Amino acid sequence: MVGLLGQRDELLRLVQDAFPVTIHVRGNEITIRGDEAEAERVGRLFEEMVALLEAGHVLDRDGVGRSIQMLKADQRPTDVLTTEVLRGRKPVRPKTAGQKRYVDAVRNHTVTFGIGPAGTGKSYLAVALAVQALQAKEINRIILTRPAVEAGERLGFLPGDILAKVDPYLRPLYDALYDMLEPEVVSRLMERGTIEVAPLAFMRGRTLNDSFIILDEAQNTTPEQMKMFLTRLGFGSKIVVTGDITQVDLPDGQVSGLRVVQEILDGIPDIHFARLTSNDVVRHKLVGKIVDAYERFDAKAQRHSRDRAAGREHSRPARQPGR
To answer: With contact defined as beta carbons under 8 Å apart, do 209 and 235 qualify?
Structure first.
């Protein structure tokens, strides 16, 4: 019961605050009073929490909070939280229903686009799925790539060869690998070429067979770079493209390849667009609220821009006959 209700009943209070019901605990018995539909939902929540405990999960405030969100959306937390992506140095599982759909999409499609805000696990889950596929011998190598946005003059002033210059851009991918595999294993696989981490420019002219290929930060590709990358796909390979179209770092006037590709490839079989939202953010709970606030601000700015454009159109003087 301590594992179910939390130290000093903190998890019980979390459930109590989330639903308009009254919960009484006596011994091993939980009684729920209130609206029948709400009471039944809370009963299902406790059943799901018990099932998670029996499966070896440790319940905490974040996990119970996400379980409450799923129940309110008529989803089963056990279907999501017991899905195993990778069993290794650190078990990797989806933490939200959106992440579960994303994982399923990658497993079931040759090309998957994971599009969503920061903190939704797009890159981390993709790397975990790649490591799992390598361990299962479904592919022969993992290729991780990112566009180096500052591949011009400012990058040239950095010391070292081209790999040293782009290393800061690739560091998040290294971090994900070291989080899942022992450091000596990562080093050995990279020395053999089984795992390759390289800037996007290094992909040109190659055909990548029997590989799990991840393009991270794809919002910073141009349409031409996106086309070049996608056409590297070879036999027995899988591609995952991740990015956040609200954080484009390209110079002004350049269109993001991630934005354009959604229109170009929409509806093509075996290509899937998985869209994650602020509900799938698994960082600090404030991150989701920050994402929502920026989305509201951007929507307001777009409406204001359209209204100004419409106002200018209406204020134009009508042309006089004969002129």
So the answer is: yes
Give CA 22 to chain center in angstroms.
Answer: 36
CA 167 – CA 293 distance, rounded (Å): 32
Ramachandran angles phi, psi of 265, nearest 5°:
-100, 0
> Do β-strands 141-146 and 195-199 pair in parallel, antiparallel, or remain unpaired?
parallel
Alpha-carbon torsion angle 15, 4, 278, 248, nearest 10: 160
Length of the chain equals 323
Question: Which of 131, 167, 132, 128 lies closest to 146, judged by CA?
Answer: 167
- Tokens 């390209």 label which residue? 250
CA 239 – CA 232 distance, rounded (Å): 10
Element (H, E) at 276: none
How does pLDDT run along the chain (323 residues), one tens digit per residue? 889 999 889 999 999 999 999 999 998 899 999 999 999 999 999 999 999 999 888 899 988 998 998 988 888 999 999 899 998 777 899 999 999 999 999 999 999 999 999 889 999 999 999 999 999 999 999 999 988 765 443 445 555 665 666 677 778 888 899 999 999 999 999 999 999 988 888 898 999 999 999 999 999 999 999 999 999 999 999 999 999 998 888 887 789 999 999 999 999 999 999 999 988 888 666 776 787 787 788 777 777 767 776 666 666 665 555 54
Do 119 and 125 meet the contact criterion of CB atoms below 8 Å apart?
no
| Cα angle for residues 27, 75, 131 (degrees, 5° grid) | 105
